[in-house]
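Explain the record.
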Amino acid sequence: MILKKMSFGLNVQKYLMLGILLLIFISFSLATPKFITYVNLSNVMLQVSLIIITGSALTLLMISGHFDLSVGSIIAFSGVMHAFISKHYAPTPISIIIAVLLGGLIGYLNGVMVTKLKITPIIATMGTMYAARGLAYIIARADGGANITSGLPLDFQSFGRGMVGPVPLPVIIMIAIVAIFYFIQTKTNLGRYSYAIGANKHSSYLSGVKVDRWVILLYVLAGILAGFCGTILVSRLGSGVPSIGLGFEFDVIIAIVLGGTLITGGEGSVLGMVIGALIIGFVANGLNLLDVQSFYQTVIKGAILLASIILERSLKNKIAQG
C-alpha cells in the first residue's frame, strides 16, 4: 500500500513538473514572438545540453545520497587540458579522450575520499573544486596567457560546433546520454543500488551490496561526464578558458532538485532532471528575450525553484496522508 502511494506520488510529481514546464513555455511564447523560433530554441537546447549531460550521472549520485560540487571546476580543468594537449602533444580526438579520463580521475579521487577516508561529500568535493580550478589556471599560465587561444589545430572547434542536419551535435550527444542513463537507472544493478544506498546505506551493506565500490563508480561517471562537457564547451568557444563552468555545479544541482530528486537520497529520476533543466533553460532564455535585468532574473529563478519544491512537497504529503 505504501509502495503504491509512493509510486503514485512520483508520477503525480512528474506530471506536475511537466505542467509547470508547459506553462512556462506557453507564457514566454505569448510574451515574445522571438521565443518560438528555430534559432532560439536551438540555442536553449545547446545551453541546457551540458547541464543535462552532467546531470545524468549526478542524478544517480544524488539518489545514492551523495553529491559533487567539483563538476564545474572539472569542466574548466578538462577543457583547458583538451586545448593544451591538442596544441602541443596529440591530435584532437586523443586529447578529448585524455581530458575526459582526467575528469574521471578527479571523480575517482572524490569517491575514494568520501568512501575510504570518510570525508563528507561537501568537504571532499569542495577541495577538488578549488584544486581543479587552480590547475586549470596554472596550465593556461604555463601556455603563456590567461586563456589558450592561439595555435590550436583546425579541427579543434568541429566537436563543439558540429551539426547533424539541423541539430547541433551536443544535443544529439545529450539525447544519447539521457537514454543510456535512463536505462542504467531503470534496468541495471547500478540504478537499483543507487536507490537502495540512498534509502539506507547500512541496510544495503548488510544485504551484501558493495556500497563503497558503487559510490566510487558513481563519482567516476560524474567526473567523466563533466570532463566530456569541458571538451564540448572549449571546442564551442574555440579556446581553453580556465574560468568557464563557474557556478555550473549549482545549475546542475538545481535542475536535479527541481526534477524531484531528494538531496538526502533514495528518490529521484533522470527524466525528472531533464524537465528541471528545461525549466531553468526556458526561464533564463525567456527573461533574456524580455530584457529583464540579471539580478531580477536571479530572484525570479530562486522564486520558481522554491515555489515548485513547496508545491511538490505539499502534494506528496497529501498523497502520503491519503
About this structure: The two ends are 11 Å apart (CA to CA). The chain has 13 helices and two strands.
